[in-house]
């Protein structure tokens, strides 16, 4: 990264203002769509798939913050998600807490776990971070599925500390079933949608802040960033912690929504799907995870009846996206918008076309 990449002057201020206006317009449109959606979707199955898609988008947005903006190639994202889900379930199961009371302590515990992972990765970069974090995730999976020792008796049933291969079930919910009766899924949808909106708003604030600038600097040119006073170790631990908080919070909400959590959530296919969502949508773009989620979840649903060709179809979509759109769909749309702006400003009669100046200038 060089100093010329930083926006300067009046033109860049106008560009930033227009970008913010576009983001605000998209946000308002999404909020309106989210509020109206339950009134137009009668199918419980479709609404359930939308809730699941929101979980995917939340996880992908935090992996995008970690890798797309900060350049930390971690493969422990689903481990963090599982930690939040398991911690929420275990707090409720062993201590009898309400789900609402367990979510934040579980998320804070996950932050502590992520900081340990971050400390282990401090002197590593690139593929070495990926290998170490993947090893941590796989170790976590093996510790859970091989846990066969009896920890507590529940009636006549022996339960393992981590739930073992079975996991935890019916440890509590949000109370929407008792409150909304047959419409409980709409209540859960509102909770998950609110979590996604809060996560995206917080991520946007980080990306646009000086902290976000430091993350991008470390990704683009670590040597230059460090020379300019950015503390790589501190920034890496910070982004690990921020990403972990929202990812694990989503894990806790996921466990409460389904009233179950098991080791299957740590499968490699889940991790690869999250990465594919980010790549298809656009790594390092704010709206990329949401767009990628919409495309891949919709494609997966369309090919649900294709059997063994379902995975092949998703693989083709991902391969085509990487080859033809290396910046993802959002990056491609950004390039198209830039091309249209340049064409609009093309020379007319040897002079650049200019829009009329506002009155008073």
Description:
It is a multi-pass membrane protein. One of its GO terms (cellular component) is plasma membrane. The chain is mostly helical. It has two domains: 43-265, no CATH class; 267-343. It has 14 helices and six strands. It has helices spanning 9-40, 44-69, 77-95, 99-120, 127-145, 176-180, 184-207, 210-220, 222-227, 232-258, 268-281, 288-302, 309-324, 328-344, and strands at 152-154, 157-159, 168-169, 260-261, 347-348, 351-352. Strands 1-2 form a two-stranded antiparallel sheet. A two-stranded antiparallel sheet has the order 3-4. Strands 5-6 form a two-stranded antiparallel sheet. A hairpin with a 2-residue loop joins strand 1 and strand 2 (157-159). Helix 11 crosses helix 12. The longest helix has 32 residues, at 9-40. The two termini are 36 Å apart. 35% of the residues are buried.
What is the topology?
Elements: H1 9-40, H2 44-69, H3 77-95, H4 99-120, H5 127-145, E1 152-154, E2 157-159, E3 168-169, H6 176-180, H7 184-207, H8 210-220, H9 222-227, H10 232-258, E4 260-261, H11 268-281, H12 288-302, H13 309-324, H14 328-344, E5 347-348, E6 351-352
Antiparallel strand pairs: 1-2, 3-4, 5-6
